[in-house]
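Reviewer comment 2.1 asked that we show a complete input and output for one of the modelled complexes. We chose the beta-D-fucofuranose case, as it is the one discussed in the main text.
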Amino acid sequence: MSKTWSAALVGAVLVAATLTGCGGGDGAGGTDDGKITMGFSQVGAESGWRTANTTSVRTAAQEAGIELKFSDAQQKQENQIKAIRTFVQQKVDVIAFSPVVESGWDTVLKEAKNAKIPVILTDRAIDSPDTSLYQTFLGSDFVLEGKKAGEWLVKEYEGKSDPVNIVELQGTTGSAPANDRRDGFAEVIKADPKFKVVASQTGEFTRAKGKEVMEAFLKAHADIDVLYAHNDDMGLGAIEAIEAAGKKPGVDIKIITVDAVRDGMQALADGKINFIVECSPLLGPQLMDLAKKVVAGESVPKRVLTEETVFTSEQAKAALPERKY
Ligand code: GYE
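Response of the prediction step:
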C-alpha cells in the first residue's frame, strides 16, 4: 500500500467527503431523464473473483435501476483510460472503475473532475496524492489480507526451527492487491528469520500463468515448503504444476491463497490448499448505493471497507454448499 493511501485513509476516518451535486439539470455530467447512468471500467476477466465481481455489479445496477455502460479493459491500463475518456464524452452521471494498476491516473481523472463527473474507485486503489480525484474507495484491505496469510503461516510453524522456504505468486505487477498482499505478508513473517521467500514472481492473477511460473519455481528450487499465491486461480494453476512434478499439494508443499471463490474452496476442502484468506467480490450493491448518494450530492465516507473472513479446510467444507460464487 502506498504511503499516500495510508495518509488518505487516516484523513478519511476524520472527514467524510462532501460532494457537489452532479447529474440532473446543473450543467454537469448526465442527462435529464432522471435515470442514473454509470460508466464502469472493469479490469478484465482474469479470475473467478473477477467474474463474480462483474456479475455482482451488473445485477446490482439492474436492481437499482441504474443504467450501466460496462467496459472490459483486458488487464490494460490504456484501455481503462480510453474507457474513462469515452464516459466523460458521453456525460455519464458517475464513473466507477477498478484500477488495474495503482499509478498513472491523475491526467484522466482530472478530465473527469473538470467535467464534474464524480468517480468511485471500486475494488482497487490508486496511489495519487490528490484524493480530490475520486469521491470514495470501496473495497478490501489488501494489506490486512496479506497479514492474515502470514499469521496463519507463523502459527502453522510455531515451535519449529527448521528453515521454511516460501515461493510467492504475485498478482498483476503494480496492482494494489499485488503490492499490498506482498507487503502485509512480508511484514508478518519478517519477525522470524526461519521464513525465507526464496522466489517471488507475478502470475498475473491467472491460472495459466500461475501454473507456468510454478513449473519454473519447481525446477529452480528442490526444497519448497510453502506456496503463497495472491489469488485462488494462480494457486489452482500451481497445483497442476505441483502434481505434474510428482508432489502432493497441501502436503509436500503447503498452499495459502486469497479470494475464497468456489474452485479455491473446493481445493481447500479437498486438502490441496491449506488456508484461504477471503476477499469478497460482491461489491455491486454497495457500489450502487454509493453511486446514488454521490450523484444526489450527499456525503459519503472516503473509504468503505468490505468485511471478510478466513477459511481452513474444515470451514471450507461447511461453507461450500452455500457458496454462491
Ligand atoms: O483477488 C484477484 C483478481 O482486485 C481483489 O483481482 C481483486 C483481485 C482478486 O484478479 O483474483
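The chain has two domains: 21-140+280-300, 142-278. We note this here for comparison with the apo prediction described in Section 3.2.
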